[in-house]
Amino acid sequence: MSLAKVSYETKESTWAGWSGYSNSSEFHAAAPEAGTWSLFGEICYRAPKGIERRWEYGKVIGRTRLFPAFREQFDAPYWVVHKVHFLEAMHKLAVDLGVSIELASKVTSYDVHHPSITLATGSIIHADLRHRCRRVNSSTRKIVLGGKESLPQRTGFSAYRAVVDIKRIQNDPDVSWLLEKPSFNLCTGKSFNVVLNHEDLSDPADWRQDKDWRLSNMRKDFEGWDPVLSKIIGMIDKTMKWPLYSSSIMRRWVSGKLVVLGDAAHAMVPYMSQGSAIAVEDGVAIARCLRKVSTKNKIYLALSIFEKVRIRRASQMQEASLLNSKIWHFPDGPIQRARDQAMRPEIEDLPFSHSPNQWSNPATQMWCYGYGSF
Ligand SMILES: Cc1cc2nc3c(=O)[nH]c(=O)nc-3n(C[C@H](O)[C@H](O)[C@H](O)COP(=O)(O)OP(=O)(O)OC[C@H]3O[C@@H](n4cnc5c(N)ncnc54)[C@H](O)[C@@H]3O)c2cc1C
C-alpha cells in the first residue's frame, strides 16, 4: 500500500487526498508498553511531510513537517500505517498474549450488570467487564445512555475510497513521481490508497449501489481538478462511497460494567486523521486504569476515571476534526485565499505561531500529538 500523504484544497467544497492510516501521540505510548516497537516498526511508515495542494493545478499551499520534526518535538514519530497491516499486527499481538478471538460472532444484546453478551447463535458469554468498540450507529450508545437515543450527525460530507494498482502509477511518467522519495514513500504492497472527501448533501438512502453509478459520480465530482489527481482518478476501476458522520458527544461512556470506546463512543470526520488513533489511546487509557484495580469492587472507580479523562480528549478531537473539515472545504473566494495566504510561512520555511492548517498549527499540534493522558 502506498502511503504518500497528499491532499488537495477545495474547489466548491471538495477535498481530495491519498493517505494511509495515520496517528501519533498516545499510540506511541502503547507500543513500548506492549513490547511492540519492532512489530509496528515493520508496518508503519514515518511520513516525512503532509502536503496540501491547490485543487485545480496542484500548487503546494501547505506543508506539515512530520519526520523528524515530530520525533524531535513530541518524542514520537508521526506514523502512517495501512489499516489492514495494523489490524493484522494487533491480531498477532492479541493472540500472542493468549486472547481468544472469535470471528463471525454477531452480538445481539448486552447485560450491563452481570455483565454478559448474547450472540446471534444464542450463546451467552460472561465476563468481569465488557467494552464495545462498534460503529457510529452502535446500539450500545443507547444502552449506556440509559435508553436515550444518540444518533450520529450527518456532516454534509462523504468520501470515495479506492485503491489503484501501483504498477499503473509507476508506468505513467506524469504521476510516477508520486511514489518517489523523499517526499513520498512506499510501504510493501501493490496498491495506492485514495480517499476523496467532498461536500455531499444527498441522502445516502438514495445512493445506488451499482459500480458504474459510483464511478461516474466520483469522476463528475472531481472534474477539472489538477491533472495529476485526474490521472489517478482515471486509473480507478471501482470505488466505495461512505457518508461521513460525527457522533454527538456522549456525557457517559460507562453503564454498569459496560464501557463504550472507539468509534462507538466518538466517531469523527477524518479531517484530523485521528479516529483510529484516539481509539488506540482509549485502549491504552483503560488498560492503565484497570491495572490499578486490585479488587473487583474498584472497577467502577477505575472506569469513572477513564470516562472522565477520555470524554474530554475524544470530544476535543471530534471538534477539531469538524473545524478542519470547514477550513479545508472553504469554497473558492476571499476566505479561501486568506487561508492560503496564512499558510504561506509553512511552505516558505519561515517560523510561524499560527496556521489555519490544523495539522501544522503549533497549538493544535501540541495538544493533539503531544498528549499523554496520565
Ligand atoms: C474516509 C475515512 C478515513 C479515515 N482516515 C483515518 C486516518 O487517517 N487515521 C485514523 O486514525 N482514523 C481514520 N479514520 C477513522 C477510523 O477508520 C475509525 O476511527 C476506526 O476504524 C474506529 O475503530 P473502531 O474499532 O472503534 O471501530 P470499527 O473499525 O468500525 O470496528 C468495529 C467492529 O465491530 C464490529 N461489529 C459491529 N457490530 C457488531 C455486532 N453486532 N457484533 C459483533 N461485532 C460487531 C464490526 O464488524 C467492526 O469489525 C477514517 C475513517 C474514514 C471513514
UniProtKB/TrEMBL annotation:
<dbReference type="InterPro" id="IPR002938">
    <property type="entry name" value="FAD-bd"/>
</dbReference>
<dbReference type="InterPro" id="IPR050493">
    <property type="entry name" value="FAD-dep_Monooxygenase_BioMet"/>
</dbReference>
<dbReference type="InterPro" id="IPR036188">
    <property type="entry name" value="FAD/NAD-bd_sf"/>
</dbReference>
<dbReference type="GO" id="GO:0071949">
    <property type="term" value="F:FAD binding"/>
</dbReference>
<dbReference type="Pfam" id="PF01494">
    <property type="entry name" value="FAD_binding_3"/>
</dbReference>
<keyword id="KW-0503">Monooxygenase</keyword>
<keyword id="KW-0274">FAD</keyword>
<feature type="domain" description="FAD-binding">
    <location>
        <begin position="239"/>
        <end position="298"/>
    </location>
</feature>
<comment type="similarity">
    <text>Belongs to the paxM FAD-dependent monooxygenase family.</text>
</comment>
<keyword id="KW-0560">Oxidoreductase</keyword>
<dbReference type="GO" id="GO:0004497">
    <property type="term" value="F:monooxygenase activity"/>
</dbReference>
<keyword id="KW-0285">Flavoprotein</keyword>
<protein>
    <recommendedName>
        <fullName>FAD-binding domain-containing protein</fullName>
    </recommendedName>
</protein>
